[in-house]
Every structure is written in C-alpha cells, then in structure tokens.
Design brief:
Length: about 500
C-alpha cells in the first residue's frame, strides 16, 4: 500500500448516502457504519438543544421536528430561489426556504444555511466514518451526482467538499458509476440501460460499454418521482380510512404522522418480499370521550400495485423517451440494470420484463452499485493502479444563452457529448454599446425563464460604435465533469476574457 491515503467513492444520494473504497488487496468494498448498515439517510437536522444530527439520528426525529429536519436537500443544491423546482419543493417540505444571493437558503433553528453547507455536513460525516474504518486520514473523493444535475449543481457539490477539506477529485454521474460497477474489467461489448429509482428521484441512462470505454448515449429522468411517492400512496389511504371510520384527520398530528410514515415505508418494503402485511398502530388518537383508537389495516401487494401502478407507468414513459433520444429500440439493449432501493418492488421488475421482453440483470446491487463504481473510478486515479477507464458522458439538458425576447438560444443540445466546446458569435445590439452581458441557462424549454440560470458574464471595454459593429466570439467549454467555462474574444483586437461560470454561492 502506498503512503498516500486512498481516494474513496461517495454516492451522495437524495435519500441515502453510501461510500466505498478499493482496499490494499485490490478489492472494492463498501464502508460500513455503526450497526452494520452500509447506507446512511441523507438527512440533516438541528434538535431543540441546538445539536446537529446527521443520518439515522436525524431520520428518527424527522416528523417530530419537521421544521428543522432537512431531507431531499440534494434537489435544491445549486438552484435559484426563483425557480420552478424550488416552488415545487416549498409545497412539499416542512422546512423553510428563503432567498439568498442567487441561490436558495434554508432556515433551520434560526440559522440560514446554503444547500452546499448541508451537503458538506453529510460528506464530512461519511468521510469521518471512512477515516475511522480505514484508520487513515481521508481527504479525497470521487462523488457521484444524478446525470441530470446542472453545471451549477455539480460545482456546488465540489464546493461542499471544499468546505470540509475534501478534495472532490472528480464528479461522475450516478448511472455511469453503476455501469462501472457492472462492467469494469470484464471486457464487455454491451449496451446497458440503467433504471435508477431511488427515494425521491428517477434516473435513466443508456450506456454503451466497449471494454474500458463507457459511453453515455442518452439520459433522462424525473426529479420528483421516487420511493417517497409510493409511501405517500399508502399514507393517503391510511388517513382516508381512519377519517372515514373515526372522523379524525390524523394529518394534523405530527407524532401520528411520524408513526404512519415510518410504517408506510416499512409496509411497502415488506410487500416486496411478501404478498400481505398488516398495518397496525396502537393508540394513535383518542375519541373525545378519551377512548384510545388504533390503526388496523391490511395491505396486500395487489393493493399497493393498484395504488402505485401509475407511478411505474411514468417511469416507463421516461424510459421510452430516452430510447428515442438514443435512437435505439428495446431490442438494442443487452442488459437492464436496476439501481435504487425502490427497484426491489416486484411490480417494477415485472413491468420492465414485459417492456424489454427479458428480465432485468442481477449484475449489480441496487443500493451499492453507485458507490462501488465511484470507488473503482477513484482507484483509477491512484499511482499504483492497473485500472484505466474512459468515460464519455453527455449533457443532460440543453445549455444556451438568452437571446432577444427571452428566448433560449441553444449552444449545446441535450445529450451532446462531453467534453465538448462550441463557439457562438456575438455583437452589440445598440449604438454606443460598450459591454455585452451574456446570460447562460440550462434547460430544455424554449423560454429562458423556465430554465435554470447558470450565471452571467459581462464582456466590457468594447470601443463605442454602431450596433452590430463589434465582432466577438464566445467559446463555451464543458469539461469531462460537466462543468462549464465560457470565454469571449473580441475578434477585432484579439482581446480575451475568460470565466468559469461560477456557482454564485461559492
Ligand atoms: P437515493 O438514491 O434517492 O438516495 P435509495 O436508492 O437508497 O435512494 O432508495 C431509497 C428508496 O428505496 C426508499 O424510498 C425506500 O423506501 C425504497 N426501498 C428500499 N428497499 C425497498 C424494498 N425492498 N422495496 C421497495 N422499496 C424499497
Ligand atoms: Mg441513488
């Protein structure tokens, strides 16, 4: 073993996080937490005494302390307060969101935190567990992000690492990591489809594996579709049934809700193994006369499937779209890889079997593949490695600049390969104009206000002249991590100006 500590792989999940490392014997292993778990909930909370809680401790008190318990924060990282995602999140979460400088902030226990600060705490916890386990200082990691993450979100994750002294050596996409876990060192020539249904998000990618080359063909997903929606279907039925029986609305009682949510998730998970599960919560409420009331229900797998079949349909529509984007049909896919806890649901496996005409692969572990792939990739940076892989990824959503009438002028279309660079001409639009402001957006909608603002830069110091006289060329460069740099050149003077489109929160 070398003297430098290993680079670990971290799957910073929306719901659960996980880490892995290639150990000195060359084998890749997950890093265990206390109690033998390999994942920790990606939840951060501040309790009433002001103590910060992370992981299981934070999850346990979630419904009792909803104001100060932050979950699914990954959806918010690197986003502006005024964005459609933030609007949707406001209606879903009990914690307070507010406007910061070009980014959304959360208010917990009278403190305002940036999303990168929440991610930093979770990364720090994972790193400390890894350090304890390996008995070595750990300060470098490969961190995975969803394929659909924007440039700003990627930079915010890097920034989160920096805040706690972790050098994020490389950001890679979760499905790419899963494909690495499946295919490294096997000399494959296969096209795989990664179907990743986690707690809060759905992600699908088609990846072509040619021995050491992993090339993403297309990617898509839905950031508001995941296991939580399956739990919600159970919760809604329990609340409705209880209200019909006893005339009491339990949704107003946080303690009752904590118990119902916990049991709903456990029941859903049980029903992946069994065909029936009882749903019993004693003493959940009292009648006005003081008589205790219980929840007494039975759930069958069939009922769960009826309640959630529409959610599965939605995932298959996305799969179909991604195949269209990749220019492929179901027959062109050699293996379907299942990633994410929710893919253990038998209905999902059945529907995919019908869709593709063959059962999904058992080749990767749904909870572990992403961290394993990240660790394998991390190992490829070590000096003593014999593992060399090449990742060819794509841009998940178009990147473009604001044009007249607030229209999106697309520079890189969705699924453009990365690394990639493109030039766009620019000029002044009125007489005497001495600076040009370029606003860069990411998203697939034709009007910029529906897309995410990545940043803006100003190219100043132009000689005053008539509109259209200045001739500039703007170069957009997206590196292998999906991070964008823009530079502009005045073609008359050759003067150059460069900017990384910074996460303004950094
Ligand atoms: P993420 O990638 O979003 O962090 P995970 O991949 O860890 O999330 O998936 C978490 C989700 O998987 C949760 O909603 C959880 O309830 C669900 N889940 C875990 N095990 C099972 C199971 N056996 N059957 C159905 N759902 C499951
Ligand atoms: Mg995941």
């Amino acid at each position: 073993m070398g003297t430098t500590p290993p680079i670990i792989g971290i799957d910073l999940g929306t719901t659960n996080s996980c880490a892995a490392v290639v150990e000195s014997d060359g084998k890749v292993k997950l890093i265990p937490y206390k109690g033998g778990d390999f994942t920790i909930p990606s939840i951060f909370a501040v309790d009433e005494k002001g103590h910060e809680l992370i992981g299981h401790e934070a999850k346990r008190q979630w419904q009792l302390n909803p104001r100060n318990t932050v979950y699914a924060s990954k959806r918010l990282i690197g986003r502006n307060y005024k964005s459609e995602v933030v609007d949707t999140m406001k209606s879903l979460v009990a914690y307070e969101l507010k406007e910061g400088q070009n980014e959304v902030l959360i208010d917990v226990a009278q403190r305002s935190l940036k999303m990168s600060e929440v991610a930093a705490r979770i990364l720090d916890r994972i790193r400390n567990i890894a350090s304890d386990h390996l008995q070595e200082k750990v300060d470098r990691a490969v961190v995975t992000v969803p394929a659909y993450f924007t440039d700003r979100q990627r930079q915010a994750v890097k920034e989160a690492g920096k805040q706690v002294g972790i050098d994020v050596v490389r950001i890679i996409n979760e499905p790419t990591a899963a494909a690495l876990a499946y295919g490294v060192g096997k000399g494959l020539a296969e096209r795989v489809l990664i179907y990743d249904l986690g707690g809060g998000t759905f992600d699908v990618s088609v990846i072509e594996i040619r021995d050491r080359v992993f090339e993403v063909k297309a990617t898509g997903g839905d950031i508001f579709l995941g296991g939580l929606d399956f739990d919600e279907a159970i919760i809604r039925l329990v609340l409705k049934d209880f209200e019909a029986r006893h005339g009491i609305d339990l949704s107003q009682d946080p303690v009752a809700m904590q118990r119902i949510k916990d049991l709903a998730e456990r029941t859903k998970i049980d029903l992946s193994q069994r065909t029936e599960a009882s749903f019993h919560i004693p003493f959940i409420a009292m009648t006005p006369q003081g008589k205790p009331l219980n929840v007494e229900m039975m759930f069958t797998r069939k009922l769960l499937e009826q309640l959630t079949g529409k959610l599965v349909d939605r995932t298959l529509q996305t799969v179909a779209q991604v195949l269209v984007d990749a220019g492929l049909s179901t027959r062109d896919i050699d293996e379907v890889l299942l990633v994410g806890g929710q893919t253990r649901m038998p209905l999902i496996q059945e529907r995919l079997t019908r869709f593709f005409g063959k059962p999904p692969s058992k080749g990767v572990h749904p909870d572990e593949a992403v961290a394993i792939g990240a660790a394998l990739y991390a190992h490829s940076f070590e000096d003593d490695t014999d593992l060399k892989v090449q990742l060819l990824d794509v841009i998940p959503m178009a990147i473009g600049i604001e044009a007249a009438g607030r229209r999106m002028h697309v520079v890189f279309p969705r699924n453009a390969s990365i690394p990639n660079a493109r030039q766009v001409p620019a000029t002044t639009s009125f007489d005497g104009q001495q600076e040009v402001v370029v606003r860069i957006f990411q998203g697939d909608l034709p009007e910029v206000q529906h897309n995410e603002l990545l940043g803006e830069f100003t190219f100043g110091g132009l000689p005053a002249g008539p509109a259209g006289a200045a001739q500039m060329e703007i170069t957009f460069d997206v590196n292998i991590e999906g991070i964008l740099t823009a530079s502009a050149r005045d073609l008359a003077t050759g003067r150059q100006m460069k900017t990384t489109v910074r996460v303004t929160s950094a």
